[in-house]
Design a protein that fits this description.
Layout lengths: L2 H22 L76 E9 H4 L9 H17 E12 L6 H21 L7 E5 L12 H7 L1 E10 L1
Parallel strand pairs: 2-3
Antiparallel strand pairs: 1-4, 2-4
């Protein structure tokens, strides 16, 4: 064989061997110094299938294939807690509207209740007061206050008129109590001739001024 041909053949053989060697170890660059590799570049395993470690093995150079316990899968993020439902709105307060107050005033002429210069109620006068009380009870659920005020005309002395107006108011109060009215709700007063509602110079006017007013305030039914 020609000398030049022999050198070319030798060079070609060496190149083939180099290529074969590189092909046989494709993962050479990824080999870890912590493991033993076989001729095929794969990690050698013992009879139990476990990877063989070298003395240089450490967690830092371990691979996932041989030591998967060192490469835990990332845990999925816990779902965000659900927001608590908004509290139900408080019910609107119930507004209780009190019944409207009832104000009733009854004026009794003195002649209808009493004799001349008397404070004793006549039978006819008692009947009128009783009828008035029944009217009030039909309209009111309850009475809050009962004001009884006596009045006289301007005839006679003022001191006498004052006393007579009080006595007549008290007589009406006592009769209402006898009918069942609540005494604790009553207010009694006498105004004498100080609050006329008509002209005291006439007979008719004086008759109107001699009176007893019963004013009841309460709640409607």
């Amino acid at each position: 064989m020609d000398k030049h041909k022999q050198v070319f053949s030798t060079t070609l053989a060496l190149s083939s061997l180099l290529v074969a060697a590189l092909t046989a170890f494709p993962a050479q660059a990824e080999m870890s110094p912590g493991y033993v590799y076989d001729a095929n570049g794969k990690v050698a395993r013992d009879s139990n299938g476990k990877c063989l470690h070298t003395s240089a093995w450490s967690k830092e150079n371990a691979n996932k294939e041989c030591n998967p316990e060192l490469f835990p899968e990332p845990k999925a993020a816990a779902p965000a807690p659900m927001a608590a439902p908004a509290p139900a709105p408080a019910p609107a307060p119930v507004v209780v509207v009190p019944p409207p107050p009832v104000h009733k005033v009854m004026t009794f002429e003195a002649a209808a209740l009493f004799g001349v210069n008397k404070s004793d109620i006549s039978p006819a006068g008692k009947q009128k007061i009783k009828e008035y009380r029944e009217q009030v009870r039909a309209e009111m659920d309850s009475a809050k206050t009962i004001k009884i005020t006596g009045h006289t005309d301007s005839s006679g002395k003022a001191e006498y008129n004052q006393k007579l107006s009080v006595k007549r108011a008290e007589a009406v109060r006592d009769y209402l109590i006898s009918l069942g009215a609540n005494a604790s709700k009553m207010e009694v007063s006498g105004m004498g001739a100080t609050q006329p509602i008509a002209d005291n110079k006439t007979k008719e006017g004086r008759a109107k001024n001699r009176r007893v007013e019963v004013e009841v305030t309460g709640t409607a039914k």
